Structures are given as C-alpha cells and as structure tokens.
Amino acid sequence: MLVLNWGLTPYQHAWQFQESYTKARRQGKADEDVLVLLEHPPVITVGRSGVDGHILVDSLTLKEKQCEVYHVDRGGDVTYHGPGQLVGYPLLDLKRYGKDVHAYVHNLEEVIIRTLADFGIIAGRDEKYTGVWVGEDKICAIGIGARNWLSFHGFALNIDADLSYFSFITPCGIRGRGVTSMEKLLGAAPAMQEVRSRLIAHFQAVFQIAAVTETDGRWLGDTRPPSWLKGRVASNQNASEVHGMLDELALNTVCSGAHCPNMGECYASRTATFMILGSQCTRQCRFCAVQKGQVQPVDAGEPERVAHMIKRLGLQYAVITSVTRDDLPDGGAEHFARTIEAIRRISPGTLIEVLIPDLQGNEAALDTVIAARPEVINHNVETVPALYSEVRPQANYQRSLAVLDYVKRQAPHIKTKSGIMVGLGETPAQVAAVLADLRSIGCDFLTVGQYLAPSAQHIAIKEYVAPEQFVHYRELAESFGFLHAASGPLVRSSYRAADGFFQKERLSS
C-alpha cells in the first residue's frame, strides 16, 4: 500500500484525485492500494443522505469564515473538515479485504480506536451511529463510498481542529450529541506527524497489509530561483557541428525555439529534438516561447532533410515535434507521416518518437500519424485542468486525454507518453489526479518538469518546486504503473527520451 502525506490540500483537489484514481483502477490501469492523509481548509461536505437543513448558518456567514460547501458521493449526512483534523482517504480494493462494507467500516473504526489508545484516550463505537466516540462526543467521523468494490472517501480525526465550526451544522445529522478532539481531552494536542505515524502502523496491522510505502508529497518550494536550478552549459566540437548542420539544412529545433535549458547539453551530445512545420505557432499558449505569427508554407523537402541530419548524427532514437498548425486541415499529420517515412528510408535503424499537438482531436489525422508506426506518440497535457484557461486557453484537457486514449485504443503496440509542467500554482493532489487520468487511458511514459517563464510577458512562475517534490511525483508515477517516469526540475518532454525508452525495453526483456 502507498501512503500519501499531502498536508493542507483544498477539498476539491483531493476529491478529484479520488475520482481519477478510482477510475484508473476500474480500467485496470492501476493496482496499488492507496491511503491519502491530509488536512483541508475549512469545508462542509454533505453526503448522499444529507440535507441542506443540517447546515445551520447562511451562505454569507460561511463566506466570511472562508468555509466552502460540497455535496459529495459518500455515505452519511453533513460534516466539517478543517485544519487540525487528520483526514484519511483509503482507496482500497475491497475484494482483497473480504468484500464486506460493514466489516470495512468496522476496521476503520478499529484503526482510530487503537490510535487514540496510544495517546491514553479510551474511545469506542456507538450502537446507533458510525464513527468513533468518547462518551457522547464524536471524535472521528467516518463516511465512505464504494463502487465495484473500490473504496473512496474515509475518516476525519479531530486532533486540534477548531470545534466552533461544528456549531454551523448538525454533525452527521445527529441531534443531542457533541464533538470533541484530542486537544480537548488531553489538554494539549499531540503532533500531527506523531498521530499520523501511529495511525499508519495500526492501519497496516488491522488490514493485515504486508508492506507500506510512505511518501511525503507537500514540500515547500522557493519563490525565487534556487541555486540548484541550473542547466548544464556545454559547448564543444559536437555542439558546433549540430549548429552547423541545422544552419546548412535549414532545420528548426524545439531546443532553440522553446528556449530549453538543456540545449547546450543535448547539442554537445550530438542530439536535438527536431521541430517541423515551420517556426511559427497558431496558438497563444502563455507558457511557451515558440514564436506566434504568420505561419510559413509547408516545406515539402523538410522530411528528407530531417532524415539526413539524423543519419549524419548517427541517432539511435530521434524525437520529432512541431508547432501547432490549426490552419492546416489535418494539423500537419501528413507532414509528420512523411517525416517518419523519410527517416525509415534514410536512417532505418533509428527509433522514432513524435511529440504531436492535439490535431484538434481529428481522428482521421491521428490515424495518419498512427499508420506511419512511430515507436512512441507523445502528447503533453502540460498542466492541471483547473489552469487550462489561464495557461492553455486554446486547448482542452479532455481533448488531450482523448488524443492519447485514441492512439492507445487504435494501436496498443505504440507506446504513449505525456508530460506536465509544475510551478504554476497547482497542488500535489491536482498533479496526482492528472497522473491517474493518464494511467486510466493506458499512458506508458511520463515527464514532470519545472515551468520556467521564457520572458516577463509569459505567465509568471508561482513556485520553484523543491527537488523532494519531484521525487514524490516519480514515486507516484511508478506506483500508478507508468513504465517509465522522468521527474526533475530540468526534465523536458523529449530530454533524454531514449533513456526512458531503452530502460523500458531492458525491464520488459
């Protein structure tokens, strides 16, 4: 079982992750049981059997207290979550635990009872109501959901939560009962980390889980460029040769066009990511350095020149991308296919990855690329869906997922790949939901890298993500079932792409 410690996380972000991960499990694309442990900003949730009348204050009061309200798909009535409360979302395959929902709830209660006992609090069950109680006061609410024997939602243990928020509701729809917390009972609250550690140990024991992997997923980043965020500046004879060949053959690279921080290293290693269909893009993505302007006519000789340069460089693995060409009926799919065909003819030993735009979801255009049989088709989702309107206003998250899904369904033998930038204001839960969405459609390879603003006119960086956070994302991806995941500050979608592909081949052979 994987335990995710996420710290303070907006409720909607955690809810979206649960939905995405459960979907990936239903699709058979993820298998690991997961326990998410976190805190929420103030929020009231209303379960399937809840009624709005059990919220006792008006919307203005809730707004003043910065308390959100969500109607959700768990059992039970109304409850409150907030800072100082350890919230747990076990995402389990209940077929492994007896296919008994009542026994599952009983076991969750047992985990909490044992955890509280470690701190000298004698708690128990109530004959009429779920949850964990100390006398007539509830200290832990439990409300779960399950579909296809896959559990979601969970429990909320009051450690040092502000109990005044419970006066805004009729907790769990139960009148005449109170709520309490560890702080109220003990006089001082134990450390959240200590409670969490005890709870994980008891969860493992009660559910008889053989092994638990714990990963902390909420590392604070920097707001100014950290000293460790430096690309490798390399210049040697190889780099000069690459520059010379590009000029001679009149070719573009995304390395130069997108101001990639790894360009020097790649050129010095005699490799590059070729950018076809010109240097001007038809979209106005606010993160991208590629020029936006008058597009050039499609260059019919470009595929041959790309293939000849690949042969001269002796590349075993080549990555081909393009600007977005919404002005073309097929988005440039035929030009991609001709480039792949030219490489097969001129440099037959080279494996090919294409990093394609969404082609506006045109399935006929996708069929053209698929028919050319590259080894990998890559399409980047780029960011979390909540940021699309700000970061990728002309793109659509669901359409990007549909592109990758269509490729995998039409050509299971072709590996699919996607990438996401971080540092734009997303939370770990949102990133995890994207990873789960990608796995639900069978995406094989993943890249996660730090967003770096190309200029002051581009969307601003919200955070320089800590290196430990990138480790967390890689661990998540591996647990979710990606064949390979590259995650680091300077990782880009085509950076060392061959390493990931050949590592996958070694692991599967």
UniProtKB/TrEMBL annotation:
The active site is at C172 (acyl-thioester intermediate). The lineage of its organism: Bacteria, Bacillati, Bacillota, Negativicutes, Selenomonadales. CDD domains: LipB. NCBIfam families: lipA, lipB, PRK05481.1, PRK12928.1, PRK14345.1. This is Multifunctional fusion protein. Belongs to the radical SAM superfamily. Lipoyl synthase family. Belongs to the LipB family. It is an enzyme of class 2 (transferase). It is found in: Cytoplasm. Its cofactor is [4Fe-4S] cluster. Pathway: Protein modification; protein lipoylation via endogenous pathway; protein N(6)-(lipoyl)lysine from octanoyl-[acyl-carrier-protein]: step 1/2; Protein modification; protein lipoylation via endogenous pathway; protein N(6)-(lipoyl)lysine from octanoyl-[acyl-carrier-protein]: step 2/2. The keyword Iron-sulfur applies. Its main location: cytoplasm. Gene3D superfamilies: Aldolase class I, Bira Bifunctional Protein, Domain 2. The gene is lipB. It comes from Propionispora hippei DSM 15287. It catalyses: [[Fe-S] cluster scaffold protein carrying a second [4Fe-4S](2+) cluster] + N(6)-octanoyl-L-lysyl-[protein] + 2 oxidized [2Fe-2S]-[ferredoxin] + 2 S-adenosyl-L-methionine + 4 H(+) = [[Fe-S] cluster scaffold protein] + N(6)-[(R)-dihydrolipoyl]-L-lysyl-[protein] + 4 Fe(3+) + 2 hydrogen sulfide + 2 5'-deoxyadenosine + 2 L-methionine + 2 reduced [2Fe-2S]-[ferredoxin]; octanoyl-[ACP] + L-lysyl-[protein] = N(6)-octanoyl-L-lysyl-[protein] + holo-[ACP] + H(+). Signal peptide: none annotated. GO terms for biological process: protein lipoylation.
